[in-house]
Amino acid sequence: MGMLNLLPEEAYYWNYAQHLDIGYLDHPPMVAWLIHLSETVLGRSEFSVRLPAFLGWFGLAYFMFRLSVVIVGRSTGKVVLLLLVTLPIYMSVGFLMTPDAPFYVCWASALYFLAKSLTQNQSRAWYAAGVFLGLGLLSKYTMGLIIPATLGYMLIDRESRRWFRKPQPYIALVIGLLLFSPVLYWNAEHQWMSFAFQGTRRWSGGMDFHLHILIGSILVLLSPLGFYEAVRVIWDVGRRRIAIKQDDLQHYRQYLFLLTFSVVPLAVFMIHSIQGQPKLNWTGPVWLSLLPLIAARIHGIEIWHNKSTGGSLARCWLVTASILVVFYAAGFTYMVGGMPGIEKESGMKFPIAWKIFGDKVEEIETRLEDSTGTEPIIIGLDKYWLASQANFYDPDHNTDIDSLQEIGGQNLIGRNGLMWATWVTPESINGRDALLISFGESQLNQTSIVEHFADLGMINTERLYNYDGEVGHFYWRVGYRYTSKALQETRPLAL
Q1: Within a 13 Å sphere around the CA of 108, how many CA atoms are in the beta-carbon half?
Q2: 197, 469, 455: which is closest to 356 by C-alpha?
Q3: 5, 338, 340, 418 - which has most CB atoms within 10 Å?
Q4: Contact 153, 160 (CB under 8 A)
């Protein structure tokens, strides 16, 4: 956790924490709050950024264990822990600090308390479910899918319909919305920009079929065997639902609960994949509710009649888990230090050179400052990778965001810079020199750059090395006397 350089996404969320707020363009604020808390205690490091994700994984494991005990039995809870350790998506949320880290904890917690309330008639569990609904919404907007899943189960399950006439579900919803209210307020103050970015923007396109990409992402998240088992569980319970209901009504209701909280969110993502491209991690929470049933099959319990058949799948899963663990070890070793006989690709495709990158950018910046007598602003010419990493790995990082801005995004030359467009505005750097950095040489020649500077220096290639040889490269040039578009438009015409 402490040796591997931050992924660009992690560095971006670390920059969230440097500009602490109750809302952001592309995500709610929980990830920023947790990073800020950890960094306040431990200081700036890769370890302190990732520590909340690592600790949160134990919360995920606890609630998934308890859910498995409630639905199937204690023995399957231990198998669920094995799945959480080894399946790619659930291993990663305990290692990488992204909004998924707190979100998965909240999703698992809400599942557990909703199962207690809906399948075991424990009315107080509704309030805990409401708390985790709110915390989950503060982590990631996808948490909202648990609401239609709950509604769907209450409509399908006859026993659960009585909750429509009781106050607890409505109180739980109010609790969740109250906890989420800071994000609502922030959006109201910012023209609902975050909701538009994550909502209407993603759903406003035409038909663009990407269902095959969704299926491919599931294979990556769960492994091929995990995907097969998830489909098999859905098929078994769906095909034999009448037999299960006749044999054991309580187990039928619990299995129906797990399927509903998987199928409803999955249906949303499948519909989206017909008109837009899904992201790799989207379906991760979908499969959490199926893990107890997959664990039952691994343990040798045939779920349709709830009887032991002797664990025929255990050997397959032991092999799969072993392969995955070896793969993780080899992958992390490669990214941190390299492996003999395997050349790292250049171009910063893996998080192996960001610290070296930050040191090199600082070295170039210092030379420019010594030669001009003024500090240039560093502008990363991509959405957020370069600016975010340069800021985290700046050896002389200044945490006072009200001081002279040192780093900005490509919004400064009229392109999409996500939250960097809010953190550093064009008007705030008028007249300053800039160090422009990019992964592509052609990006440094574009008209959008030329029109913003009185003069431009030559394009340079900077190669990055460690003890294992070249590990990446980037391009840079100097722009002199930056002028924002707004200032250009107000200049008087020359006679």
Answers
A1: 29
A2: 469
A3: 5
A4: yes
Asked if residue 205 has pLDDT above 80, the reply is no
Tell me how far apart the 2 most distant CA atoms of the chain are, in Å: 92
Alpha helices in 19-99 (DSSP H): 30-42, 46-71, 74-86, 88-92
- Average per-residue pLDDT for the chain: 87
How far are the Cα atoms of 192, 265, 275, 376, 393 from residue 272, in angstroms, in the given order? Answer: 21, 11, 6, 44, 37
Domain boundaries, the chain: 8-326, 354-490
- Euclidean distance between CA atoms 237 and 94, whole angstroms: 30
- DSSP letter, residue 200: I
Asked if residues 134 and 98 have their Cβ atoms less than 8 Å apart, the reply is no
In Å, how far are 47, 48, 66, 68, 155 from 55, measured between CA atoms? 12, 11, 17, 21, 36
pTM of the model: 0.91
Two tokens at 233? Answer: 């569980």
Listing DSSP states for 216-272 in one string gives HHHHHHHHHHHHHHHHHHHHHHHHTHHHHHHH-HHHHHHHHHHHHHHHHHHHHHHHH
Calculate mean pLDDT across residues 469-484.
89
C-alpha dihedral over 412, 418, 424, 429, to 10 degrees?
Answer: 0
Distance CA 285, CA 290 (A): 10
pLDDT tens by residue, 327-352: 999 888 877 766 555 555 544 544 56
CB 466 within 8 A of CB 356: yes
Q: What is the mean pLDDT of residues 191-210?
A: 75
Q: How far apart are CA 204 and CA 70, in angstroms?
A: 41
Structural element, H or E, at residue 214: helix 211-239
Please tell me the least confidently modeled range out of 44-58, 191-205, 321-335, 455-469. Answer: 191-205
* Nearest by Cα to 132 from 156, 107, 149, 150: 107
- Residue pair 292/72 in contact (Cβ under 8 Å)? The answer is yes
- Residues 115-120, mean pLDDT to the nearest whole number: 95
CA distances from 95 to 33, 53, 116, 355, 442 (A): 17, 6, 29, 19, 36
Cα separation, 254 vs 260, whole angstroms: 10
